[in-house]
Write a structure and sequence with these properties.
heterotrimer; A mainly alpha; B alpha/beta; C alpha/beta; B: alpha/beta; Rossmann fold; 2 domains; eleven-stranded mixed β-sheet; C: D-Maltodextrin-Binding Protein, domain 2; 13 helices
């Protein structure tokens, strides 16, 4: 009886998770079934696995490790431009890879701003290419995401707890012991797993910043298996390995992350009484400034190189921008249809398997999903006709892990806090979803939707395989411009993409917070 | 009539037995030492905990398998009785219809309940803007519109000051008087029981004892109660 | 054209013959882009064929071949345009292609006798650099200098694979030594041509692997003569881009017509300033002004498709070994 006493059913969530699993493993199987006899794993594949693991671990630890003091500083300080800074923090994450690489190199490259500065002082340029370059780029991409996830953890601590701690005269260290460390042990494993999974499937960034084939990742090996060897068996095998690695990381994270929440509180504005000393203020300021500079400089480079071509952008680029907005909108809707039931099911205690299914989206190689879908769809329908829905769906699945990390903790709080009250009022099913779950989760839904829209906008995804000649997205148009030597226009189009992604993120994220009490 | 027939409630290593009957319209205080299982008893009646053995009947019908919201029960928890994102009016309206779609008479019923608890001017406020006493009144207004036969209170006024608590208890007393509901109220304060309850159920030593008249029990406490009262 | 299609749509209920036939050509993505030859080619061919030409972009040359392999005999494609001689052996091995009927007076640096694939343009791989920099004269010279280069990964890029073949064709068994010496000149390796060229333009490297025709773009489209290609005395490797007709095409005649159109004046004159390659048959009016300034390699290197197929894996291993150190 206690088991059935839930305000909503976990079944839609289980269904959504099953759909995601079917998509990921179905496409993988489709690819594997098409395979002819291949050459199996070679020494170079194992080298790729080793390098992939090394860089992914380093990147995850550094991104999350650095995100902690940055998030803490952002949680403790209120300053002019804080909201804008937090929104801009989302930017690196959603940039198309090629644009981000060029932006990073304009700052850290051999001919970049830092090297040029050093040259004026008669010093050697920065040596960016190598493992440290790969990690630097991955930190650039993932530090903001990790910061947002952890910052959210800070904001989940009810204001009452901070008041209680302040009343007890807790200083920074005591605050850490009482509230912050327990919160971090809950949030950090998930954040580490997500960043690890993102870096695991990195390819172009790792290769370019890694300085050559030393930096071969599993995803590049998959790419090679596809287009150099046309060895679908090996591609499927490598992709399966990538899934296993990510799955293992996710399982470990879920085991470690178990911990108690902070109980109920009334929605009071968060105000803190610790960290008011001059040293704490100085340190917080330093962390915020350093992170802001590190993240904003490459963005600045992208903006600067994009401005000159902006007025000359041809109609086709604007049309592609419209297509991208369309894909992003559809993808966001699909994402929420998948993520909300899944997050609810996790909150109802059907955790493990669903969370695992959610994170697999990151590990699945877009190339394998795209090819698998193509193999499945091709005999029954015209792939071009399905370009829009397929791209939107795959983008949604790729954004799912982030959305779940954002939605699950909040869904747990809402169900835990209001589940029984709702039940005692005979409020269940749709009325619970409409009247309690969705309103209570609005800020998180806005954040997740914003992230999904922005990610989808910047993603080249599977469009390459399904590309309808009439339906180019903005990232594809950027690659086309570069392929046709139009670097200035490509930079301008990249700036347009950046602006659109940020706008989508801003609108949805703000929309979630508009008149919200939380 | 509420009848608990050879009930056994188990929760981890903890177990509670109950075999008792409570007459319709009674006002019962549930008293006992901390951790004896007062809240467990209330939660079981509300349908949040399963019975290991036995049965609960209300007016002759078995409540087994009846979902919490379908039971003839209105329940106030120790805290978190209101949704912070809904207005006072909406929080009350939930007691009539969980999807908040009220017709004209239902609107009027909700208004009347607000008037009854003296909060008609605050219908559009959010709970965070109210005092503790006002929040309790909102919850009671909702109990009123729920119109259930059984009202279970799990110390909802524990956080209020003495004067305010007395005021709330009196309001509860008036409301059950008006509606004819049966009241079960967890309390650890014998004076609460004397003020409002005509019967007391003692929960101690793994057992919820049959109800006894309040004054009689409190004036001549059995050893278990004596130990608790000190 | 659109009205014609609509009209055809209306008529087709009564007279199926009135339907405009559709010719589907799979090609690489940069061909169909607004800045590639695609739009002009489509317009020009539709003017003469009475058909609807549907150009479908699929990644680059290697992705194009993978796509055809995936689709197999059921493919909607009638023609595949955009493979090069490094891929034609594998393409033929699929058995999906039919022989063509194209006869043309090619102006290629090599004789063309392939019965399955017909060429439409060609170019020399070369390192592009700023005109004011001293240019190395061959790979050994480059390796001895401290000139920094950015190249593409042969596993993910057509020019990258071309460079492997270039070194292999020029140096044979000596190739591993050349790569070992070059490894400290390689700033980095990119996924594709666009990334590499972008890095070069940003100043990350002194030279980038591209084509001898690349400076023509800067000169003609941007009136910028600051880029030049370095002339290597061991010769330059050729890339010949080809097209072929699929055996299972439902429009075999139209496919033949397209392949013949491909080597005609109308198509060939579009190529130089959209694909920035040499046309396979020089147009009667000659090449656009500016092309005469491009460097002319003294020697053309090209492995036959069978040689290319057989050395491919060895060459990749040598490259990986040398650069992974």
């Amino acid at each position: 009886m206690a088991d059935c006493a839930k305000p909503v059913s976990p079944r839609p969530g289980i269904g959504a998770a099953a759909l995601v699993v079917a998509l990921i493993f179905g496409t993988l199987t489709a690819v594997a079934l098409r395979a002819e006899v291949g050459r199996g794993f070679g020494a170079s594949d194992w080298a790729a696995v080793r390098f992939t693991l090394t860089q992914a671990c380093l990147s995850a630890v550094l991104s999350v490790g650095l995100a902690i003091p940055v998030a803490r500083a952002l949680a403790r300080r209120r300053f002019f431009g804080r909201r804008i800074l937090i929104t801009l923090l989302g930017a690196p994450f959603i940039l198309p890879v090629i644009v981000a690489i060029l932006g990073l190199l304009q700052v850290f490259g051999r001919a970049g701003w830092i090297s040029s500065g050093l040259a004026m002082l008669g010093l050697e340029p920065v040596q960016i290419y190598g493992l440290h370059g790969v990690v630097l780029a991955h930190v650039f991409f993932n530090l903001p995401l990790a910061t947002r996830l952890i910052l959210q953890g800070w904001q989940e601590i009810p204001a009452e707890r901070f008041r209680l701690a302040a009343q007890l005269g807790a200083d920074s260290r005591a605050m850490w012991q009482l509230l912050e460390r327990p919160m971090l042990t809950r949030i950090m494993p998930g954040a580490l797993a997500v960043v690890f999974a993102i870096c695991l499937s990195s390819f172009a960034v790792a290769l370019t910043l890694g300085g050559g084939p030393r930096a071969t990742t599993i995803e590049l090996a998959i790419y090679q298996a596809f287009r150099f060897d046309f060895d679908l068996g090996r591609a499927a095998l490598l992709s399966a390995l990538q899934l296993v690695l990510t799955g293992t990381a996710a399982l470990v994270a879920l085991r470690v992350a178990a911990g108690e929440g902070f109980g109920t509180g009334l929605d009071r504005a968060l105000q803190r009484w610790d960290g008011t000393g001059p040293i704490a203020r100085l340190l917080d300021g330093m962390w915020i400034a350093t992170a802001a500079i590190f993240l904003m400089l490459p963005l600045g480079a992208i903006v600067l190189s994009g401005l000159p071509g902006l007025t000359g952008l041809p109609v086709s680029v604007w049309a592609a921008a419209l297509n991208s907005v369309l894909v992003a909108a559809l993808s966001t809707v699909l994402l929420l249809l998948l993520a909300l039931p899944m997050a609810t099911a996790v909150a109802l205690g059907r955790g493990g398997a669903i969370e695992l299914a959610g994170i697999l989206g990151l590990a699945a190689s877009p190339l394998v999903i795209g090819t698998g879908l193509f193999i499945v769809i091709y005999p029954i329908a015209d792939p071009f006709a399905l370009a829009l829905p397929v791209t939107a769906l795959v983008n949604a699945v790729m954004a799912l892990p982030f959305a779940l990390r954002i939605l699950v903790p909040r869904a747990q709080v809402v169900v835990g806090r209001y589940g029984r009250l709702a039940l005692s009022l005979d409020m269940r099913g749709w009325s619970f979803v409409w009247r309690v779950l969705l309103p209570r989760m609005r800020p998180q839904i806005g954040f997740a939707a914003g992230l999904a829209a922005a990610l989808s906008m910047g993603d080249l995804g599977v469009i390459a395989l399904f590309a309808d000649p009439e339906f180019a997205t903005l990232p594809l148009q950027i690659y086309r411009l570069m392929g046709a030597y139009r670097m200035e226009l490509a930079s301008a189009a990249a700036l347009l993409l950046l602006a659109l992604s940020m706008a989508a993120f801003w609108i949805l994220d703000r929309g979630g917070r508009w008149h919200a009490e939380a | 009539m509420l009848r608990l027939e050879n009930c056994l409630i188990e929760n981890g290593g903890f177990s509670l037995r109950a075999n008792l009957t409570i007459a319709r319209g009674s006002r019962v205080a549930v008293i006992g030492p901390s951790g004896a299982g007062k809240s467990t008893l209330i939660e079981t009646l509300a349908g949040f905990r399963p019975l290991t053995k036995g049965a609960i009947h209300w007016n002759g019908s078995d409540l087994a398998g009846v979902e919490p919201g379908k039971r003839p029960v209105a329940l106030l928890f120790q805290d978190g009785n209101l949704f912070p994102h809904l207005t006072v009016a909406q929080n009350v309206a939930l007691g009539i219809h969980a999807n908040l779609r009220l017709d004209q008479p239902q609107q009027a019923q909700m208004q009347a309940a607000l008037v009854r608890v003296g909060l008609d001017s605050m219908a559009d406020r959010k709970p965070a803007d109210l005092s503790g006493g006002q929040q309790s009144r909102v919850a009671l207004a909702r109990v009123l519109v729920q119109g259930r036969d059984l009202l279970l209170l799990d110390e909802p006024f524990a956080a209020l000051g003495p004067a305010l608590k007395v005021e709330m208890l009196d309001l509860v007393g008036e409301l059950v008087e008006e509606t004819g509901a049966t009241l079960l109220m967890v309390s650890h304060d014998p004076s609460d029981a004397r003020r409002i309850a005509n019967q007391v159920v003692l929960v101690a030593d793994g057992c919820a004892h049959a109800p006894q008249p309040t004054t009689q029990l409190l004036d001549n406490p059995p050893p278990a109660l004596k130990a608790y009262l000190g | 054209m659109k009205y014609l299609v609509i009209a055809a749509g209306i008529l087709s209920t009564t007279a199926a013959v009135a339907e405009v036939p559709e010719l589907t050509v799979y090609t690489y993505d940069s061909f169909v882009s607004d800045w590639g030859p695609g739009p002009a080619v489509e317009a020009a061919f539709e003017e003469v064929c009475g058909c609807d030409l549907k150009l479908v972009g699929a990644g680059d040359g290697a992705a194009l071949l993978a796509r055809i392999k995936l689709e197999g005999a059921r493919s909607d494609a009638d023609v595949v345009l955009g493979l090069d001689t490094n891929l034609t052996a594998a393409a033929k091995a699929t058995g999906l292609f039919a022989e063509h009927s194209v006869v043309a007076d090619y102006t290629l640096p090599v004789a063309w006798e392939d019965k399955t694939f017909a060429p439409y343009d060609w170019g020399y791989f070369s390192f592009v650099q700023n005109a004011d920099a001293t240019a190395p004269t061959n790979f050994k010279d480059l390796a001895a200098s401290d000139t920094k280069i950015v190249i593409q990964d042969p596993r993910s890029s057509t020019p990258g694979l071309g460079l492997l073949m270039w070194v292999k064709a020029a140096y044979g068994d000596e190739a591993p030594a050349i790569w070992a010496d070059l490894s400290d000149n390689v700033v980095t390796v990119t996924k594709g041509w666009s990334e590499a060229y972008g890095l070069f333009l940003e100043g990350e490297a002194d030279m980038v692997l591209s084509y001898t025709t690349s400076p023509a773009y800067h000169l003609i489209a941007e009136e910028d003569d600051s880029k030049t290609a370095a002339l290597f005395d061991e010769g330059h490797y050729l890339q010949v881009e080809v097209a072929g007709k699929l055996a299972n095409s439902d429009q075999p005649e139209l496919a033949d017509q397209f392949l013949n159109f491909m080597v005609s004046e109308a198509f060939q004159s579009i190529i130089p300033t959209t694909n920035w390659m040499y046309p396979a048959v020089t147009p009667a009016a000659g090449l656009p002004a500016g092309f005469e300034t491009l460097v002319q390699p003294g020697k053309s290197l090209l492995l036959t498709e069978d040689e290319a197929a057989s050395v491919r894996d060895t060459a990749l291993d040598e490259w990986l070994t040398a650069l992974s150190r």
